[in-house]
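dude i think i finally got it to work??
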Amino acid sequence: MASSAIEVVIPAYNAGRYLRETLESVAAQTVPPSLVTVVNDSSADDTVAVAESCARDLADRIPIRVLHNPGPRGPAAARNLAIRTGDLPLVALLDADDLLTPNHHAALRQALEAAPGIVLAFGDHDVFGAGGPVNASGLAASGVAQAPAKDVAPGVFSLGEATFPALLRTGIFGTSACLFRRSAAVTAGLFDEAMMHGEDTDLFLRMSLLGRFVFVREIVARKRVHGENLTHERNKMLFCRGAVRSLTRLAEADRQGGIMLTPGQRKALRAALPGAVQGHLYAASRTGVAAYREAATMAARAGHAGLAAGPKHLLRLALRRLLDRPRRN
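look at this
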């Protein structure tokens, strides 16, 4: 079976219990990748042993290399290590606890090559856990399934100019449900290694300025839900902080001429930034004084310092402080 020019990049932190099933889903591709890179991210469990065992057991189906992330812990630095040290033109991201459906590579490579100027292709994903499927369609949850789309080729669609505004609002596709050109990721500056939450959407926003995104409607990945997901509800404030960091940086780059936004993109960015700041302030006010102080500082950098003085946020913060105050007997 001929391989594709695809490298699958898997950052793995304490993922030993899931990693073999994840790698077996890669080995089951109808069009197998040319390389799979597992990046151990300072794991304290048997992640490395499982990865090395799979490299031996699956050697006749997929080549697996195991790297060790020497940089800051987190999926951003781990993915960057693999992307910088690889040379295959196409990259598929895969979280160590997720699964690919057998047609992931075939469907997304075909979509990526459907027309000139495409830098990223994505598909749908479902969500599963111990109790079975949780959500039948990630594209439905993000609104992509309902959004007006243009036909690029049979079965391949684009949101067109609506792609950038949609990315400003939310992650419109699952990280494990995409395939992109390595050169576009490198040109965009790769992942921000200071970010642990929202780093994928941050990169995708920058990549969307370099070329077109397209999508297919079929499910190409399965996201596993468990108590240790970075996307867990308890990390909501951190994702809000990541969104403000990302949008503020884009706005600064636009003002300084570092990026070229269309008038529509600039308008969408200016409209999205206050909402992102408000979301961060809201989440921080429910967390505590230190978090709110940081959120207020970021609001000022974003040009929306006045939002931190909102009475509802301050009242919520005061109530949080009251609840946190030690009670005397």
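The radius of gyration is 21 Å.
im so relieved honestly
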